[in-house]
Automatic annotation (TrEMBL):
Gene3D superfamilies: 2-enoyl-CoA Hydratase, Chain A, domain 1, Nucleic acid-binding proteins. This is Serine protease. The lineage of its organism: Bacteria, Bacillati, Chloroflexota, Ktedonobacteria, Ktedonobacterales. It comes from Ktedonospora formicarum. PANTHER family: INNER MEMBRANE PROTEIN YBBJ, NODULATION COMPETITIVENESS PROTEIN NFED. It is a multi-pass membrane protein.
Length: 460
């Protein structure tokens, strides 16, 4: 097992080195110099989750430190999880620089949690053929939630929406209907009814409209925007952020667990393979990194870990595949619990398709049973190497055995003694090894069955 733990350490070192390299790259990107007359831009065009929160935080920090006139947040998102949404709206509302949310491109949307983020900005704008709204709380599967819990969440979200729209002097009744009635508005309606502030066909026109506009900040200070002739600097995601976003996908997290389980299982069942052990340990570390961001039910993870233990035990014990079936059941149930609880609640993000879990369970059954059958056959096979492999092999007497002498075994000259001390055989007689004592072979004549009287006698 020392080699197994060594491979886990190697996997950890590889992952740690990769993180350090990405961190160095991230630091070098952050140190880039920007022009003085510019605005920063962040593009949120995916699920609202902790990765989106990281990107927005990075954009706000960059804009505050590099002299940007404001931060533009371009939004095209179906929504996401509630906790990330709350953190993002809080950061925007408390920002020390002006923040402009722009729903774009055409056909895009700021739905569910993204609607709150859009309206929390100091200026909310939309491009043609975009829409905003549908912010009613739902479960992780998109269905309705219990009446009592829904009432609590809805009242809290309505209060938050009312406070935001009141602060910026926008339409409160229509905005709250996004929460209470799941209303959604196209750009023309949202602009006309003053749910948002502005409409602009592109970013250039939006900057022209913003020039000279006065913004009241959280501190009470009034800031006049100066956006004429400014350049736009994109605040892109760092390599670490890209990896982090990738690892937040539930499908990727589940695949990492399967790779880790299969890799470590193959390493334990076939020690010395190296590649499966290293691959499995790396996948395990990446899985734990990604799973930690889901706030899941750890009881589900315990069941998933139990499936791995059962697979290993089925190779060591003669259970005829029963533990493998139990491992598959534990994996399926544990995964359903783990990933459902990890993304439950209103404004949930990407989900893991249950059929994907069922398919992985079937693969685990096939793989486990194949290895169990192979291991059972190996245990039943006659040993072909070492002392056990020599017992039962045939040798030829090189000298008379009285009862000691010399025999030829696989072209080598060995010392031998007859198993029965009262026997004597001549040279050239075929013998059978019955035991091995260091470099001395215990042999006996090869016997045959006589047809006449079924008596056993040595050959002539």
């Amino acid at each position: 097992m020392s080699g197994f733990y060594q491979r886990i350490r190697v996997g950890f070192i590889i992952v740690f080195g990769l993180m350090c390299l990405l961190g160095i790259t991230s630091t070098s990107v952050q140190g880039k110099e920007f022009e003085s007359a510019h605005v920063d831009r962040v593009i949120l065009n995916s699920e609202i989750n902790s990765a989106s929160l990281r990107l927005l935080t990075r954009g706000l920090e960059r804009a505050s430190s590099d002299g940007a006139h404001m931060l533009i947040v371009e939004i095209d998102s179906p929504g996401g999880d509630l906790d990330s949404m709350k953190s993002m709206t809080q950061k925007i509302l408390a920002s020390s620089i002006p923040v402009v949310a722009y729903v774009t491109p055409g056909g895009g949307r700021a739905a569910s949690a993204a609607a709150f983020i859009t309206l929390s900005a100091h200026v909310a704008a939309m491009s043609p053929t975009t829409r905003i709204g549908a912010a009613s709380p739902v479960t992780s599967t998109g269905s309705d939630i219990g009446s009592t819990l829904k009432a609590k969440i809805t009242n809290d979200l309505v209060a938050s929406m009312t406070s935001i729209q009141q602060r910026y002097g926008r339409n409160i009744p229509l905005a709250t209907r996004m929460v209470t009635q799941a209303s959604s508005y196209d750009d023309a309606t949202a602009i006309r009814e003053h749910v948002v502030d502005l409409g602009a066909p592109n970013l250039g026109v939006l900057l022209q409209q913003l020039n000279g506009r006065q913004i009241r900040m959280y501190s009470g200070q009034t800031v006049t925007l100066s956006t004429a002739g400014v350049t736009v600097q994109d605040v892109s995601e760092t390599p670490v952020g890209v990896l982090y976003t990738f690892l937040l996908n539930p499908t990727v997290i589940f695949l990492l667990f399967i790779v880790a389980m299969v890799g470590l299982y193959l390493e334990i069942s076939h020690p010395g393979a190296i590649a499966p052990g290293v691959t499995g340990s790396i996948a395990l570390l990446l899985f734990l990194f990604g799973a930690g961001s889901l706030s899941p039910n750890w009881a589900g993870l315990a069941l998933m870990g139990l499936s791995f233990v059962l697979l290993v035990l089925d190779v060591r014990l003669s259970t005829h595949g029963v533990l493998t079936l139990g491992a598959a059941l534990s994996l399926v149930v544990g995964s359903l619990i783990f990933f459902d609880s990890g993304s439950s609640g209103p404004y949930s993000g990407a989900q893991l398709n249950p059929w994907f879990i069922y398919g992985a369970g079937a693969v685990v059954v096939l793989l486990g049973l194949t290895i169990v059958v192979f291991a059972a056959r190996v245990r039943r096979m006659k040993a072909r190497s070492g002392v056990e492999g020599m017992v039962g092999a045939h040798v030829v007497a090189l000298t008379p055995l009285t009862p000691e002498g010399r025999v030829r075994y696989q072209g080598e000259n060995w010392a031998a003694t007859l198993d029965s001390s009262d026997q004597i055989v001549d040279s050239g007689v075929n013998l059978e090894i019955v035991a091995v004592e260091r470099l001395l072979l215990h042999v006996r004549p090869v016997v045959t069955y006589m047809r006449d009287d079924d008596k056993i006698a040595p050959p002539d």
